[in-house]
Write a structure and sequence with these properties.
Helix content: 25-40%
CATH topology of the largest domain: Rossmann fold
Order of helices and strands: EHHHHEHEHEHEEHHHEHEHEHEH
Radius of gyration: 20 Å
CATH architecture of the largest domain: 3-Layer(aba) Sandwich
Number of helices: 14
Mean pLDDT: 89
Number of strands: 10
């Protein structure tokens, strides 16, 4: 019988997302591939420091037991195969069972997400993330300067999601961008009972839900999720009803009405936070590991990615833009 990953949560991750290879990356980007390869080979027995997604990956892998493998982590990297040896060696030194990898020596790696059936792709390369999203895979560009995850919850995988253009489609945000806040509020009130369409990260949330449901009751690991959105009442109702319609629960929901997300995420202490607006991602990264999801109308060329977040900061809490990112 052929080996398959169909029954697992599959995370594809680049070397820079899992480990701190920022100094090495400067050499890679200089264009001297041979020097980069020699450098990595010289350090093959020197474990790399933890990267932005290290805590998330380590905790997800903790769902695996000798009897059942629930999570598969696959290296998907622009590194050359020889440099990939240090990646595998560093994972082994960290106690991570990472057995599979694709190394493309500078070529686009995102197409391999299809045969992997990945539920998540994390990379420091923005172009790869955009391409992955364009072919239907949840993907985020890790902010490599993010604050590392805390260690207060060793037995919980804690993940926070933005709503519109991340868990949900950007249909409501498009109303706001084209017609303004009053039209948005009217639209969401009128459609409160109509579920929003799926966004790019619904498959990951659903896979996490299945992982939690499939883990044995005696398993020590748990998953805790949070919706962190700039929506506020009455626009909160449609978001909640959408999740109920999907049959997926989140443990916490924060309807912040335009308040800065970073301080709230600091209290939740996620292993990772996903958002589609760079302003909010940068706010989050000052406190927690964060990634930018290049999705939705605010990430279209010339859309002014910073504008909504900046405008929200200038408006009173009751009159802020509704974008949850």
């Amino acid at each position: 019988m052929a080996v398959t990953l169909d029954d697992k949560l599959v995370v594809a991750i680049s070397s820079r997302a899992l480990f701190n290879f920022e100094e090495e990356n400067l050499l890679f980007e200089s264009g001297d591939e041979e020097a980069y390869m020699r450098h990595q080979l010289a350090l093959v027995h020197q474990p790399a420091r933890a990267g932005v997604a290290f805590s998330l990956v380590r905790k997800l892998l903790a769902f695996n037991t000798p009897d059942a493998q629930h999570v598969e982590v696959v290296m998907l990297s622009r590194n050359d195969p020889a440099s990939g040896m240090r990646v595998f060696a560093s994972a082994k030194a960290a106690g991570m069972r990472v057995e599979r990898g694709v190394f493309t020596r500078g070529r686009d790696p995102f197409a391999y997400l299809r045969p992997l059936g990945a539920h998540l792709f994390l990379s420091a390369n923005e172009a790869d993330v955009r391409q992955a999203l364009s072919i239907g895979f949840p993907a985020a560009r890790v902010m490599t300067d993010s604050t590392p995850a805390g260690d207060r919850f060793p037995n919980e995988v804690r993940i926070a999601f933005d709503g519109d253009a991340v868990l949900f489609s950007d249909e409501a945000e498009r109303v706001f961008q084209t017609a303004g806040l009053p039209a948005f509020q009217e639209n969401e009130a009128d459609k409160a009972s109509l579920p929003l369409a799926s966004g790019p990260f619904k498959p990951l949330l659903a896979a996490l839900h299945r992982l939690q449901q499939g883990a044995h009751a005696s398993h020590t690991m748990r998953i805790r999720t949070a919706l962190v959105t700039a929506r506020s009442a009455p626009a909160h109702e449609r978001a909640i009803r959408t999740l109920l319609d999907w049959g997926i629960n989140v443990d916490e929901a924060m309807f912040l009405g335009g308040l800065e997300k970073g301080p709230f995420l600091r209290e939740f202490e996620p292993d990772f936070f996903f958002d589609d607006q760079t302003g909010h991602v940068q706010s989050a990264a000052r406190h927690v590991p964060a990634g930018h999801v290049s999705s939705g109308i605010t990430n279209l060329a010339g859309a002014g990615n910073e504008r909504p977040a900046q405008r929200a900061a200038d408006q009173p809490p009751g009159l802020v833009e509704p974008k949850n990112s």
